[in-house]
Amino acid sequence: MWGSECGRVRNNRTRTARAPTHMMVGMGGWPTACAMLALAGCSFEHGVAPDELGSDGGYQDAVGTGLDGAIGSSCYGPAAGAWRVCLGSVPTGGVMLPPTLDTTTSMLCLQAQPAEWTTSGQPPACFVVGDAIQTSKTVVTGSRPLVLLSSGTITIGSLDLASHADSSATGPGADPSVCKPFAANPQTGDGNGGGAAGSFMTKGGDGGDGHDGDEKGGRAATADGTAPAVLRGGCRGQKGGGFSGGAGGHGGGAAYLVAATSIMVTGTINASGAGGSAGNNNKPGGGGAGSGGMIVLYAPLIGVTGTVFANGGGGGGGGDGDGSPGDDPLFAGVTAGGGSPAGGDGYALSVNATSGGRDKDGGGGGGGGAGYIRSNLTIGATSPAADIVP
Prior knowledge:
Helices cover 3% and strands 21% of the residues. It has helices at 33-40, 115-119, and strands at 13-16, 43-46, 74-76, 85-87, 94-96, 100-102, 126-135, 138-141, 146-160, 254-259, 262-270, 294-298, 302-304, 307-309, 372-375, 387-388. The longest helix has 8 residues, at 33-40. The radius of gyration is 22 Å and the shape is elongated. The chain starts with 12 loop residues before the first strand and ends with a strand.
């Protein structure tokens, strides 16, 4: 099932990728020299004609958007199940991802969904395919999760799937309809309760009480408890109590990386939730933070020398219009702090999110819960710990 050669790009100009200097983990756990040599033979498209450029300025391989998505002989991922992807033909042509990619509108996305992906219950996704996919730094947003599928290699410098507090755009596929409803809304009055955070694999923090405890904060949904069966993003935090309560942070995005030869991550893959916003005035509650999203990796060789994380954001501060927003997660093992006053901290590296605190005016927002990371091979330290499913 797995392809053994890295495809060649037949273009006027090519650039050869350098072989990695670190060891990669093979199916049996041993470093595999031949795979490293295979990586050295990969090349990426440059000098494409203007009509091959997508609207986002990225490179579009000639075969990519021509695939009809029908089940054929070219299948990738596990031997069966929801994570198997079958295409009508083997993807060819290297793809260099652009600095920004919107999964709702990008011309790099396949025109049709692979049939087996749809029938297995997976949501519509943006499929970017090729025989070698590379990015130095790409920020991904949009309504659909991202799937990177390579008949050869995937090399990641920085892939930002996170939602961010300073942007209305969300990570790909964030805030899905499958998110559970909040257990309770924040109370309002002479002082307002803080918003609860988004929950996913762990429970998000509850909102803090306002007016010295008289107005109760929102209550977060329970954690999912079981591993998700399909690709989905994280859940949004709750708006803080009061007319001018802080907005809830969006959940983190979702991506599935599947390659026939190898996946190499030298930098970061970040699918974290956004920090909650602080309220404006009139004793508002702080906004709850978003939960982490979802990252799935599948290949016979996976080398990670960087970091992979899907943490929760920090809750927004409450108070009387003098609060600050919660932090976005920036590092795998560092909690995103809650805003002042009284915002709760987000999940990071097995440390659960905390609830927003009580304030004499408006309560703080809760910190976001953990996302989900899955891999068929052990990939070292991640946040949260990766679920290893061969």
